[in-house]
Amino acid sequence: MEIGQAFTVSALGSQFLVGLSRAMILFIVSAGMSFVLGVLRVPNVAHGSLYMIGAFAAFSISNLLGGGTAGFWLALILAPLVVALVSLIAERSLFCHLYEREHLMLLLFTFALMLILGDLVKMVWGADYRSIMAPELLQGSVNIFDSPFPRYNLFLLIIGPLVGIGLWLFSNKTKVGKIARAAAVDREMVGAIGINVSWVFAFAFVLGCFLAGLGGALVSPTISVTIGMDHDIIIEAFLIVTIGGLGNMWGALVGSLIFGLTQAFGILFWPQFAIVFPYIAVVIVLTWKPRGMLKSVW
């Protein structure tokens, strides 16, 4: 793209929407990680592996149901539930015994779990590239800012805010959400009034992992589903929750917007080095706000 073209209102507007749609996927995945960080204080490196399982599960479910519109929508619902089941098994058998351990040990444990899940995915689905077709309703593009913009990306722009609002309502307006927030502050006090904190933590962990699976299912029509897709997303998600504020859901949204938009505009202005721009933004934010843009719950 020529420099003169790069600065047109049409190109800027179109790339802005591309960055927003990418940010919505990052936000859904990062919000799940941030929720787990905020409630359980667990830096879950395996979060990216659950995102990958969500994408592969969506592919398998869609194929099993013959593809098409019904297959896609059912895959979008069932794939995150598969991830939630996997995470529940992991939480009840492993994580529930480790919450009192040091963060470094938890980090190493989840890193080991990431390697195990990666090998299991390779054993089940193989190393081939997979892809999912979006339903006919979400195929094609519409003209926005005099440029074609994929309908599926518009769908992502709707889903992202809905997930954010839903997670906020759960955390602030439901009994379980309020108990989870209280347990994050003082686990012993919550347990002293007769609440089973262990199952509260299990629910919080499963919900965060469900969002990882949802992110994987949502992204599957836009990229190749393959082994290794967990590595990039986990790096990005950790940086996002760090610059947003550890455990802060709205901080995850701010971090996702910074990451998605800087990447999109980097592609527009300097495509050879587009990957560098989000990391430059991370360095600037952490230099200015070492504890993140918004208040950290830690």
Overall description:
- It is a single chain.
- By secondary structure, the chain is mostly helical.
- It has one domain: ABC transporter involved in vitamin B12 uptake, BtuC (Orthogonal Bundle), CATH 1.10.3470.
- It is built from twelve helices and two strands, in the order αααααββααααααα.
- The chain has helices spanning 3-6, 9-40, 47-64, 68-93, 103-125, 151-173, 175-185, 187-192, 197-219, 229-244, 249-269, 276-288, and strands at 141-144, 147-150.
- A two-stranded antiparallel ribbon has the order 1-2.
- α2 (9-40) packs across α10 (229-244), α2 packs antiparallel against α11 and α7 packs across α9.
- The chain is globular, with a radius of gyration of 19 Å.
- The termini are far apart.
- The relative contact order is 0.20.
- The model is unreliable at 1-6 (pLDDT under 50).
Task: Give a short summary of the structure.
The protein is mostly helical and about 300 residues long. It is about 70% helix and about 5% strand.
Q: Topology, please?
A:
Blueprint: H1 3-6, H2 9-40, H3 47-64, H4 68-93, H5 103-125, E1 141-144, E2 147-150, H6 151-173, H7 175-185, H8 187-192, H9 197-219, H10 229-244, H11 249-269, H12 276-288
Antiparallel strand pairs: 1-2
Say how many strands there are: 2
The CATH C-level class name: Mainly Alpha
Strand order, sheet with most strands: 1-2
Number of separate domains? 1
The structural class is: mainly alpha
Q: In percent terms, what proportion of residues is strand?
A: under 5%
Helical amount among residues, as a percent range? over 70%
Rounded to the nearest angstrom, the distance between the terminal CA atoms is 44 Å
**Which blocks of ≥5 consecutive residues have pLDDT under 50?**
1-6
The sequence of SSEs as H and E is HHHHHEEHHHHHHH
